[in-house]
Write a structure and sequence with these properties.
Blueprint lengths: L1 H28 L3 E8 L4 E8 L6 E10 L12 E6 L2 E5 L20 E14 L3 E15 L2 E15 L6 E12 L2 E11 L2 E10 L5 E11 H8 L8 E11 L2 E10 L1
Parallel strand pairs: 4-6, 5-6
Antiparallel strand pairs: 1-2, 2-3, 3-4, 3-5, 6-7, 7-8, 8-9, 9-10, 10-11, 11-12, 12-13, 13-14
Length: 261
């Protein structure tokens, strides 16, 4: 009798999991395109391959996305998922054509949240009229509950090109942020390059057309400041101080209180 009860409970759990997975699948199909989709029983999961959005800005694609539902999730009201995203690419243009703009909003059914999410080997591109930024080999961990997002990410290959510079700024970067709706608090950001070290925090808004303001400490070469602002004199040495870095309507802003040796 005990064995029969266990089998009934296990069978019921599998049926409930399959029901949830099919509902998630239906919601995904209304939002994203994919080349292949399959359901696995053990572990119960949806596996999507060659995923992409219709819009060109923002444009998202991924080589593979796996959505798993742990058994313990069946006992929770929000039924959190585990998400694994392999080789995702996010591209954002500052001024896409009107017919290319599309909001990305994937609201999963049954109040499903993300218990643990992992991103491997990601890429990010932003192209503006006066600023462009690229990031490669991104590794990230994230969680999402309703409209709250928590994310920690790092990348060893980053490149920032400013209209005032003839060369890109390159280096490593890491970030820890928490967001609700269209506003994201940047709790910690670190950037290290051959000519600079930046440590700070700030706010990011309107992720579809990003705008941000970051207050940070800066250590770097005076030659970098000279090149950015096209100063009409030679300035040799290093510089330390506080600065505010912002992006608004595609234009980079920079204010600083600096001292050099």
């Amino acid at each position: 009798a005990f064995s029969l009860l266990v089998l009934l409970l296990l069978g019921g759990a599998i049926v409930l999991k399959n029901l949830i997975l099919h509902q998630v699948k239906k919601k995904i199909e209304a939002t994203l395109h994919y080349a292949r989709l399959r359901l696995t029983v053990i572990p119960p999961a949806i596996v999507l391959e060659d995923v992409r959005t219709v819009s060109t800005s923002p444009f998202f694609s991924a080589e593979r996305i796996v959505l798993q539902i742990p058994f313990l999730s069946l006992l929770k009201r929000d039924r959190p998922l585990r998400v694994f995203i392999e080789r995702p690419v996010l591209r954002i243009y500052e001024n896409p054509q009107p017919d290319q703009k599309q909001k990305i909003a994937l609201k999963l059914p049954l109040s499903i949240s993300i218990e643990n999410g992992f991103i491997r080997d990601g890429e990010f591109y932003y192209w503006g009229e006066k600023t462009s930024f690229t990031s490669y080999k991104i590794k990230a961990f994230f969680q999402q509950s309703q409209d709250r997002l928590v994310l920690r990410a790092e990348s060893d290959e980053n490149s920032l090109l400013l209209d005032s510079l003839d060369y890109p700024l390159t280096g490593k970067a890491s970030v820890s942020l928490e967001g609700r709706g269209n506003t994201i608090a940047i709790n910690r950001i670190r950037a290290y390059g051959p000519e600079f070290i930046i440590k700070g925090k700030g706010v990011l808004s309107n992720p579809e057309q990003p705008e941000f303001e970051i207050q940070a400490s800066l250590h770097g070469q005076t030659s970098l400041i000279q090149d950015i602002f096209d100063l009409p004199f030679d300035w040799k040495g290093t510089v330390d101080g506080k600065c505010t870095l912002s992006l608004e309507k595609g234009e980079i802003g920079f204010r600083a209180d600096l001292a050099s040796d």
